[in-house]
């Protein structure tokens, strides 16, 4: 393991593009970001900027409660820690996700069960979820990958029919829309990311939202109050195993400023992504990312296309490198998003019956093998070339990108 470099995050993980294309960084910052940060400083840390951001974000999403956290992985951990399921309970999860989606579940001793995606898609559907439901299933976590919402109406119906908690990981899909309704407003709970490279990039940051008052209280109690209540005559008393994952005031200030410009940015992300899709449809050998009709707003965080391997004299990985050399500096493949293969420690835990896999009623055989369990997801990531998207792109930049891709594709077709 020592021969590998530590994983990078944020700006350090993105190479600058050529002078022809703008990079994600430096980020466009809302005009009031500095003002809000200065307000925190001038107040001597007495201003409650976190509550101001929570109120503003909840209002923008049309929900009752927003519980702000230091980051998106923290948001999903708060969510998982607030679940009152027995250890060993099964949670169905999208297989194309991020470690942050499942970290909290694993820490709380739940068992992730990865359902497959639809063919040629990064997203799950009710059809791919239902075969994974068992007597021990307690919840479903769907990931709106790349900024495209899953087909939520059938998924919500399936969850209700089976009395399952429905959670949306909308970390890559802030202000995306499914049939005109915001992603993150279909389930019982949703998590969002404001990490620096995400669509609404702050200096990290995340949150959980819900329309349920009981859940709102529970999330604050577990995630922000550390599972403690004030007992008269004694003081702070911890009745539950809680966390202290409160969003910092200055992060809230930056996120509040970014919230004021995000909708305009998402509209441009959607417009430019659809423009490139129309152009890429003209090329032989590749299939541009499918933007379903139900995706009425594509909060494009990453964009990409599927390679038809038999049409090329090079591998998808080699084609991605060629495109990068031509100027699309952060293009590459995201095979590491395949959770059944990326979580090596989880494979080992299941194989060695490490708790909670050692429980008497634990699933008989959980092997976390993508070829057997999630072949569609594996096939998608084995042939999908993607790159980070930015609201800075204009029609001119889309034409430059198209020409880079066109040249690389046509040079390497069989």
Would you write up a description of this structure?
The protein is an alpha/beta fold. It has a domain at 33-260: Type I PLP-dependent aspartate aminotransferase-like (Major domain) (Aspartate Aminotransferase, domain 2), CATH 3.40.640. 37% of the residues lie in helices and 16% in strands. The chain contains 15 helices and 16 strands. Strands 1-9-8-5-4-2-3 form a 7-stranded mixed sheet, sandwiched between helices. A 4-stranded antiparallel sheet has the order 12-14-16-15. Strand 10 (228-231) and strand 11 (235-238) form a beta hairpin. The longest helix is centred in the middle third of the chain and has 19 residues, at 262-280. The protein is globular and about 80 Å long. It starts with 32 loop residues before the first helix and ends with a helix. The relative contact order is 0.16. The model has no long low-confidence stretch (mean pLDDT 95).
Summarize the structure.
The protein is an alpha/beta fold and 414 residues long.
Mean pLDDT: 95
Enumerate the strands of the largest sheet in spatial order, edge to edge or round the barrel.
1-9-8-5-4-2-3
| Straight-line N-to-C gap | 38 Å
Oligomer: single chain
Helix content: 25-40%
Shape: globular
Please state roughly what percent of the residues sit in beta strands, choosing from under 5%, 5-15%, 15-25%, 25-35%, 35-45% or over 45%.
15-25%
The total count of strands amounts to 16
Q: Give Rg in angstroms.
A: 22 Å
